Amino acid sequence: MSTYTIKDLEQISGIKAHTIRVWEQRYNFLQPKRTETNIRTYSAEELKTILNVSLLNKYGYKISHIDKMSTFQMEEKILGLNQMDAQKEKVVNDLIKEMVSLNMSNFERQLDLYIAQKGIEKTITEIIFSFLERVGILWITNHINPAQEHLSTNILRQKIILGIEKLSNVQLTNKRIVLFMPESEFHEIGLLYVHFLLKQRGIGVDYLGTNVPVVDLKFLTEFKKVDYLFCHITSPGKQFKLAKFIDQLSQIDPTIPIILTGQVIQEFKGAVASNFQLKRTLSETITFMNEI
User: Fold this and answer.
1) For residue 209, what are the β-bridge partners?
2) Does 173 share its domain with 155?
3) Could you report how far apart the first and last alpha carbons of the chain are, in Å?
4) Reported pTM
5) What pLDDT is attached to residue 1?
6) Which stretch of DSSP H or E encloses residue 182?
7) Is the dihedral of CA 226, 154, 46, 112 positive or negative?
């Protein structure tokens, strides 16, 4: 059975760990267990509860009032929230709840319902991205069971690919960008999301995908005009060395801009050649796309 730390709850719910501790002292809706070293652990049911509590509190309900509600009453109040943002957050919360319960038929049903109502593009930008933002860091740090990760990501992968296929093939620029991930990197969702955003903007994409040797990139750039190389790195294998990888990439044509993004890049402090651009946030990546 999955258990979660207070930091996990903070990441997923958006409620600060300090606030969660205060709520535990004053109210009854959370009753964490403690390890032999006195570290709090939370069950999947408590994760679901904090998601309900955080959503109701954000949209006007006092904690003292929420504390007196049953789970059914909380769910009923959430269904009554009319604000558009609240409805989006409810869908994301429901996806998280179905994921932790390993109820993937309901997980996919939630996505399909939103697609039917809003279309695939809005589902990706409003729901899937928010979901990934809240739980993605837990996947790559092994704070969520691998079964939960694999089942969820495979469904999300299918939906993002569907979104890419639904977009128009009309290119608004003659620039082309090659998307790839290094050898031993298989976390593809982030790169697929970038593919979706680029195609949405009418930018030509050559999608190489996961586990691409640098020698193959070098071969490609020698025989095909490439305007940009774009690499997303989330959680590569244990043998991966970022500094070595960047050094290998620097052996490719130095006139080609190389864009590096992803969780690993956020923490990199080393120097890079002038044709490298490190994008540490999604907003920086989107700014780059808009400038192509």
Assistant:
1) 180
2) no
3) 47
4) 0.84
5) 52
6) strand 176-182
7) positive
Give just the sign of the alpha carbon dihedral 92, 97, 99, 102: negative
197-to-124, 164, 181, 234 alpha-carbon distances in Å? 10, 9, 17, 18
Same domain, 247 and 263: yes
Task: Indicate which CATH number applies to the domain containing 220.
Answer: 3.40.50.280
pLDDT in tens, 78-136: 988 888 899 999 999 999 999 988 999 999 999 999 999 999 999 999 999 889 888 87
Which structural domain, as residue segments, surrounds residue 185?
169-291
Domain count, the chain: 3
Please identify, among 166, 186, 201, the residue that sits at the C-terminal boundary of a domain. Answer: 166
Outline where the chain has alpha helix (H).
6-13, 17-26, 44-58, 63-66, 71-79, 84-100, 104-118, 120-122, 129-140, 146-166, 189-200, 214-223, 242-249, 263-266, 282-291
How far is Cα 115 from Cα 119, in angstroms, rounded to an integer? 4
Name the band, by pLDDT with cuts 50, 70 and 90, for residue 198. very high
